[in-house]
Amino acid sequence: MRFTMRVNAEPTDEDGLRSDAVRNRARIVETAHELFRTRGIDVPMSTIARRAGVGVATVFRRFPTRDALVTEVFAEQISRCQALLDEAVDDPDPWRGFRRLIEFTCAEQLKDRGFSEAFLAVFADEIDYQRRRRDVESAFEKLVRRAKEAGRLRLDFARSDLVMVLLANGGLCHAPPEHADELSRRFVAYLLQTFSTDAPGQREPLPPARPLGLHHAQGQDEDV
């Protein structure tokens, strides 16, 4: 008589992944997010694998391309940004919607260096990205047009100025960490005043200035 030994299969999640595979995937995403946040999205996949304690093959098995990993890491933030853009377009006050979008995007960028890179980079496959980019650009153009028609946004504001804002605001990641958020809020307020058609007497006060010296711009200690 032949006896057959049955080995219990390892537990799986709803997607059919083994529990250890689920843990590996979560560790890869968490590690990638931390590295993207501090170093940008060009971190080598081998570095991500080493920090996550898995092999490079494991990373590529879960995320066949860098774009797939970037998409997963920043999916929630990108979705929130797109949702805010939709809300801004539908806001009865287009200038309020425009301001909220600029303030949110710049605040997220400063929290997470990889966010703006991911926001502007190619996500997932090229076809999906092109469709997504067209949708975002179309919505932003509509918001800009409505704000101009309402007489609140200067007529020479260009869509590409949003990229300029992100590039400039991104430079504040090199500011003293304890002041970076406040500096960004003041900088964004300056920009919004520049974009606005409000007369000087109608402008809201700027957030307070921070006690910085030229040595901060030079990256030197004050006593050097």
TrEMBL record:
One Pfam family here: TetR_C_43
Keywords linked to the UniProt accession: DNA-binding, Transcription, Transcription regulation
Positions of the DNA-binding region: 44-63
Domain HTH tetR-type as annotated: residue spans: 22-81
Region span, Disordered: 199-224
SUPFAM superfamilies reported for this sequence: Homeodomain-like (SSF46689), Tetracyclin repressor-like, C-terminal domain (SSF48498)
Record's keyword annotation contains DNA-binding: yes
Span of the signal peptide: none
InterPro entries given in the database record: Homeodomain-like_sf, HTH-type_TetR-like_transc_reg, HTH_TetR, Tet_transcr_reg_TetR-rel_C_sf, TetR_SbtR-like_C
Protein name: TetR/AcrR family transcriptional regulator
Organism in which the protein naturally occurs: Kribbella yunnanensis
